[in-house]
UniProtKB/TrEMBL annotation, chains A, B:
Pfam families: Cupin_2 (PF07883)
Family matches, as SUPFAM superfamilies: RmlC-like cupins (SSF51182)
One GO MF term attached to the UniProt entry: metal ion binding
Domain Cupin type-2 stretches: 46-117
Organism from which the protein derives: Blastomonas natatoria
Keyword Glycosyltransferase on entry: no
Protein name: Putative cupin superfamily protein
Origin organism lineage: Bacteria, Pseudomonadati, Pseudomonadota, Alphaproteobacteria, Sphingomonadales
Keyword hit for Coiled coil: no
Lineage top rank: taxon: Bacteria
Keywords: Metal-binding
Amino acid sequence: MPKVDLEAIAQSNATGYPPHLADIVQERWYRRLSPALGLTDFGASHVVLKPGAWSAQRHWHENEDELLVILSGQAVLVDDSGRTLLEPGDIAAFPKNDGNAHCVINEGDADCVFLVVGQSVNGPCHYPDVDMHENGAGDKCRKDGSAF
Amino acid sequence: MPKVDLEAIAQSNATGYPPHLADIVQERWYRRLSPALGLTDFGASHVVLKPGAWSAQRHWHENEDELLVILSGQAVLVDDSGRTLLEPGDIAAFPKNDGNAHCVINEGDADCVFLVVGQSVNGPCHYPDVDMHENGAGDKCRKDGSAF
């Protein structure tokens, strides 16, 4: 039956960030929908941001379009243009390679739930605010290429 | 700014269905987000189903994964397994080529708003309940291949 039973899909707060950059995503709880549901054309995740949690370090992708829709709660979108409140039903789009680093932060008292769609494949990812880079092969390193 | 201004994106109720199959989608008002927002990895649409409207004739795609999330209102998902109520935050997934024809119908008194993600490319689409077929090149015809 196509209605998704979210409870049946494992939820994780795992991150590839090094410990000193990972505090902000410790309460980002996500479910990877596409592998669980047999979808291969795109990657979709259901994400619960607990109060105080960030979706990610502020970043932009060279090779991956992203689309996000808020399902419940609120989050502040932070990007090069400033801060923008997102509420249920609000959509944000991040075209690949636009150089506009972004993240969303739950600054409220309730959970923020959103759905995010991207590609299943990885690619280089840039983090302007912190000394981290993702080369697209899955491993994160310092901007000079050295390992954490 | 990545927050999407929906009002700035054209809304349409256009359909490629022949007139005798199109009544049910006349009050399906959609915005094609991906071309408006510069996204090319996947196709995303914001859809308002007025009371009584269907998302489509019941169908399944050979080459296109679909994912839908309800943003407000309610809809009944109809597929080979029966009828399932969808409410805000509910997600439904339709893997390509699974042969499970589906649609959602707004049987309520309020608008139903959803976001749906698929591919930007077309492909064959099957409609088990009506004499229509989509060969993937954009033109719909009868099941015997004849034109409407």
